[in-house]
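Session log. Operator J.P. requested a structure for one protein chain; no other inputs attached. Running the standard single-chain path with token output.
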Amino acid sequence: MTIRRIGVVAFVVVLALVPLAAPAFWVTLANYIGLYTMVALGLVLLTGVAGQTSFGQAAFVGVGAYTTAFLTTHFGVSPWLTLPAAIVLTFAVALALGFITLRMQGHYLPLATIAWGISLFFLFGNLESLGGHTGVTGIPALTLASIEFKEERHFCVLIWIVTLASLWTTHNLLDSRPGRALRAMKGGVDMAEAFGVNAARLKIVAFVYAALLACVSGWLYAHLQRFVNPSPFGINQGIEYLFMAVVGGAGSVWGAVVGATLITVLKQMLQDVLPTLLGRSGNFEIVVFGVLMIVLLQFARNGVVDWALRLLPRRRPRLDDDAAPLAPGEKPHDVAGPLLDVRNARKAFGGLVAVDDLTFRVMPGEIVGLIGPNGAGKSTTFALISGELPLTSGDIAFGGQSIAGKTPFAIARLGIGRTFQHVRLLPAMSVQDNVALGAYRRGRAGVVRAALRLDSAEERRTQAVAMREIVRVGLAEHAHDEAGSLPLGKQRIVEIARALASDPSLLLLDEPAAGLRYMEKQALAELLRALKRDGVTILLVEHDMDFVMGLTDRLVVMDFGQKLAEGEPAAIQRDRRVLEAYLGVDEAAPAPAIAI
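Structure written below.
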């Protein structure tokens, strides 16, 4: 049994002893820690993993609490029937707010969550049917068979059964196909979409999931207290929930437990101790929390759990060498003609024309280089092919099908894999998990299947695919290392392995040799030749002329957004227009036969 599993078992054992033997004070604290953990757990997924900051989760706790309070006291509905009602209402509210809020980026997103969090707080306090600021009393206790959950010890068992179930499902979700996609979004939506992830949809899913966890916490809170008013659902409490996630470790499910425990216990201790030390009462614990946050961000920026886990040996996943292969990725049906056909592609940014009526083709099995001086429009052309930028005019066809106007994730799902000009890996994730992200388009497991661990067979096949691609590119000894710990050259190879895991028909490589040493470039060139022998078609942008001249079948030369020349490397080497663009050769001088 591993150290991690021993820790989990010890935690569950201690937890089981609390309602049996702990003093009443600690049972009460355990109840609130469980309730807070559920809300912080949603923020681990939404903020820590998906990178979408929310200060408004306390409002969703209020939706769950007020739904059951209203239905049980006004209409006598069974508390157990109010739970699905609260979930449905929260789902609808979160879906509506998510569609509006998650379109925002930067500082606008957290500001928007503050705005609707405050709005819902005042809505709770101003509706007479909800008791106004006085609140709702007389909420019935929960009963199950002959058990009535009036005593806090009984309620502690119920709260922690639900909390442990939430921890289990969220852990499963993060360690799965959609979980890797969520982590990828923190590294940039464009990176996630390059592997077939519908980032907009997945952000909504994470937002709704976090809201539903908060709703269940609010429902339990209402029946624990048997009274609700707006006070616990304000923006201050929303900030505290986010504080819990950050302190514990916003990238780990156990960060929610640790953060909720530390903040709850520390808050109680400070409320008891500080008035004695200072001789007066007040919210001085907030000042202490602020100081502690500064210290934490200085020495353990990823939270207490991340700091502690680094002291333990890294978990190495068990691999199933006999795992059945994943389904192959979607392939173009029409491969008799060009695999990629760029026809009069034009991209204008106002009066600036970055790509000007560019036309070229890439045939199946070719390695084609797209070269040109800085500012020639090469990266813009890649962005047009991958869907990052829309065409101003013209067309781009892949496998005989027009992809103009399609979203990046839809284009990726057709069979176009890519790397980036600047390395885009998730540095804290292992090389194997980074490469497994590339296989996203070949999987089928969704959020529900992943959360319930019904995707085990597919996950084994995904990890086997990732390992095979890592071996294929020669990085087997680094499979379990953090991607960010590798030198730049190997990180670029990891990007190629990740793209290959998607089983692409066309591989777009954006300056793959940039920053590499001579021997690394030679190894990369040999890898790309091997991929060509395996039937992979490659289009690459590169500035290193020695690298592309010895590697490519054809070159397309761009200058000022236009195609300057096209042909085999030997012909391009002697093309006067190309030499003038690169070297400024005098028109009257004889064309030098040199490698540029």
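Operator note: DSSP finds 23 helices and 14 strands in the chain.
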